[in-house]
Design a protein that fits this description.
single chain, 677 residues, alpha/beta, six-stranded mixed beta sheet, binds ligand MGD, binds iron/sulfur cluster, binds molybdenum atom
């Protein structure tokens, strides 16, 4: 018998916890926590503990598949890559697009964006960050000059006040929530702004339970109070920021009375919360999807930045604006340029000098036009303006908004290739399906939410004939006659990444063995960067913007009287492809549900556990009622993990005008009892 423990990174969320995969005679048998890891420190959440289940699932894809007469047949790799290469070559660059993956490694994301740009000659490469923190990237670049978490996870523990807004940290970033709880134990104050009761609200000094979609008004209200009580950091504003006059002018009219009317948060509570945040020695803002997934996503993010700058809470330990990145490697997929407007390291595609640099490095001409974003790709496909897509490690048939429309778009394509580890709802619509190897079966790196680049390590051989995604992309590029994809290992890909990407300049595998490195890390001697904007913002001065409150794109009315907001539960991940393969996790939550307030349920004569119908202007689903106080009256909440009651049948695809993120957190809905006949 041969037993080994292989240290790697949990494949689920951006906390980036490390654990050991237990391997017995070449078979994966379990997971063990890692005591010495900086973030997880020997702890894991329930998903982490069960992160080997899906790897060994019988449902894994083991061979390439091709659709013939509406049915999939197994084919050889050679045949599959031949077909894909021939088909992708058929279309001119404007008609093809790719989706990269926050579940894949940095090296794989780099290759996917290189493949799109250097082989397909299109900048239409995007990934789920668009649905997630696109608003963060736009908003924090505008204000601070860099779109990442300003401080490190561990620093939260020493904050004197933590303001959690639109993040259900305990359920969605459990190992970060631990640091918030530790801060609390050390005497820190906690303010939570969330329309729902979440585990953290029990521990909060103040819970601001605002109407979904009113965050700009809420934050303007807090700033109004801070200014009228003279609690702003005058020295910081003068020395380190610009645009304060504009902010002040706009914020003036957001008096506590006015803000109470918009948000329904009592003005006394607003005043207490504003004082608490502004008076603490170090205050840290933590936010996630409750802030970003709105048509006003960028406005919301900028408002968080305004608040932090107004009180001088940036560029110091245990302060800052901390967007919690969701997917295990969504930070990395962005860093490596799986975005339509930038190459790796956020280097602009529109900048001629940068383009020339990449043309030289890759020895080929590169396209100039900016590419399409996720939802735009689907829209163009539905209109017939996009003909072929290569989707790696994403499942838009469940994760994009308005999935009846997504289906129409994907079905309208001339050619769809999906590279996944399971036959997902999206893969089922594909012409060719390529089986990727999972995180347990390959080497590479993931970048956690606090910009920490860490190694993942191969524990077992890929199942069946599946192959690591980086290898598949290289083989496909070669089939298409392209050069520059002759890598023998992920380490070699990282060498190229470091050579063209200043923020990753010092990332070499030898240096990542221990606890990884936080970017910016421009050279092999640089120690990495725990917190950003010390002494100076990435853009020079921090910039204030005066932001007016705007309502969500679709508000409740007589026909659709409820606000539907969507999100997650601790037990499942996204479209359920991975967590729903785990018996332990399915036991906890086997199927979808809708949270509805007990008063609304009573009015509609609905009992707990009853199947009810939820409808929006886009579609209708049947789903189990969960009667609760977690949601206020006239607000319902549905987690989007479940194909059989898919929340995204209902959601509104309206987009933030700049970040192009959809409004998953607010749409109008109607709830009905299903009458038995
Ligand atoms: N278990 C689990 N963990 C995950 C994931 C998962 O699927 N499952 N996904 C990962 C990913 S990719 C992401 S992006 C993160 C997401 O992590 P979170 O953003 O924490 O999760 P959500 O449930 O989408 O939404 C967060 C909170 O926003 C609140 N909210 C709704 N509307 C509003 C509003 O208008 N304003 C404010 N302020 N709050 C509002 C909701 O009530 C909810 O508590 O989680 C990551 N971690
Ligand atoms: N209604 C609603 N919808 C939402 C959200 C919401 O809050 N509400 N949140 C949005 C957010 S924040 C996000 S991030 C998106 C997520 O949207 P997606 O990224 O589409 O969702 P996932 O289920 O994480 O899809 C990842 C896919 O990668 C596959 N996979 C896993 N490992 C590998 C690998 O190593 N190689 C390959 N090739 N494939 C692999 C999995 O099987 C899965 O099919 O959903 C968005 N959709
Ligand atoms: S907190 Fe996130 S990274 Fe840590 S074990 Fe849970 S899912 Fe994995
Ligand atoms: Mo996300």
């Amino acid at each position: 018998m041969e037993y080994k423990n292989v240290l790697t990174v949990c494949p689920y969320c951006g906390c980036g916890c490390n654990f050991y995969l237990q391997v017995l005679d070449g078979e994966l048998v379990g997971v063990l926590p890692c005591k010495s890891h900086v973030v997880s420190q020997g702890k894991l959440c329930i998903k982490g503990w069960n992160a080997s289940d899906f790897v060994v699932s019988k449902e894994r894809l083991t061979k390439p598949l091709m659709k013939k007469n509406g049915k999939f047949i197994e084919i050889s790799w050679d045949e599959a890559l031949d077909v894909v290469a021939k088909k992708l070559k058929q279309y001119s660059p404007d008609f093809v697009a790719t989706l990269s993956s926050a579940k894949c490694t940095n090296e794989e994301n780099y290759l996917m964006m290189k493949f799109a740009r250097a082989v397909l000659k299109t900048n239409s490469v995007d990934h789920c960050a668009r649905l997630c923190h696109a608003s963060t990237v736009v908003g924090l670049v505008k204000t601070f000059g860099s779109g990442a978490m300003t401080n490190s996870i561990g620093e939260l523990e020493d904050a004197n006040c933590i303001f959690v807004i639109g993040s259900n940290t305990t359920e969605q970033h459990p190992l970060i929530a631990r640091y918030i709880m530790r801060a609390k134990e050390k005497g820190a104050k906690l303010i939570v702004a969330d329309p729902r009761l979440i585990p953290l609200t029990q521990f909060a000094n103040y819970h601001l339970r605002h109407r979904p979609g009113t965050d700009v008004a809420l934050i303007n209200g807090l700033m109004n109070i801070i200014l009228s009580e003279g609690l702003e950091d005058k020295e910081f504003i003068k020395g380190r920021t610009e645009g304060f006059g504009e902010l002040k002018k706009v914020v003036e009219k957001y008096t506590p009375e006015y803000v109470e009317k918009i948000t329904s948060v009592p003005k006394e509570l607003l005043i207490k919360a504003a004082r608490m945040y502004a008076e603490a020695k170090s205050s840290s803002v933590v936010y996630s999807m409750g802030i970003t997934q709105h048509t006003t996503g960028v406005d919301n993010v900028v408002s968080c930045a305004n608040l932090a700058m107004l009180t001088g809470n940036v560029g110091k330990p245990s302060t800052g604006v901390n967007p919690l990145r969701g997917q295990v490697n969504v930070q990395g997929a962005c860093d490596l340029g799986a975005l339509p407007n930038v190459y790796s390291g956020y280097q602009s595609v529109a900048d001629e000098n940068i383009r020339a640099k990449f043309e030289k490095a890759w020895k080929t001409k590169l396209p100039q036009n900016l590419g399409l974003t996720v939802v735009e790709m689907i829209n163009e496909a539905a209109k017939g303006n996009l003909k072929a897509m290569y989707i790696m490690g994403e499942n838009p048939m469940l994760s994009d908004p308005d999935i009846n429309h997504v289906k129409k778009g994907l079905k309208n394509l001339g050619f769809l290739v999906v590279q996944d580890i399971f036959l997902t709802e999206t893969a089922q619509l594909a012409d060719v399906v390529l089986p990727g190897a999972s995180y347990a079966e390959k080497d590479g790196t993931f970048t956690a939410t606090d910009r920490r680049v860490q190694k993942i390590r191969k524990a077992i051989d890929p199942v069946g004939e599946s192959k690591p995604d980086w290898q598949i992309i290289c083989e496909l590029a070669q089939k298409m006659g392209s050069h520059g994809f002759e890598y023998s290992s992920p380490a070699e890909i990282m060498e190229e990444i470091a050579s063209v990407t200043p923020i990753y300049g010092g990332m070499v595998y030898e240096r990542l063995e221990d606890i990884g490195l936080q970017w910016p890390c421009p050279s092999k001697e640089h120690p990495g960067t725990p917190y950003l904007h010390k002494g100076k913002f990435s853009r020079g001065k921090g910039k204030f913007f005066g932001i007016e409150f705007k309502e969500a794109a679709e508000l409740p009315d007589d026909e659709y009287p409820f606000i539907l907001t969507t999100g997650r539960t601790i037990f499942h991940f996204h479209t359920g492809t991975m967590t729903r393969k785990s018996e332990a996790l399915n036991r906890e939550v086997p199927t979808g549900y809708v949270e509805i307030n007990f008063k609304d349920a009573k009015e509609l004569d609905i009992i707990d556990g009853e199947m009810i119908s939820v409808q929006s202007r886009r579609g209708k689903i049947e789903i189990k009622a969960r009667i609760t106080e977690r949601v206020p009256q006239k607000v319902i909440f549905i987690p989007f993990h479940f194909a059989e009651n898919a929340a995204n049948v209902l959601t509104n695809p309206a987009l933030d005008p700049v970040a192009k993120i959809p409004e998953y957190k607010v749409c109008a809905a109607k709830v009905e009892k299903i009458e038995k006949v």
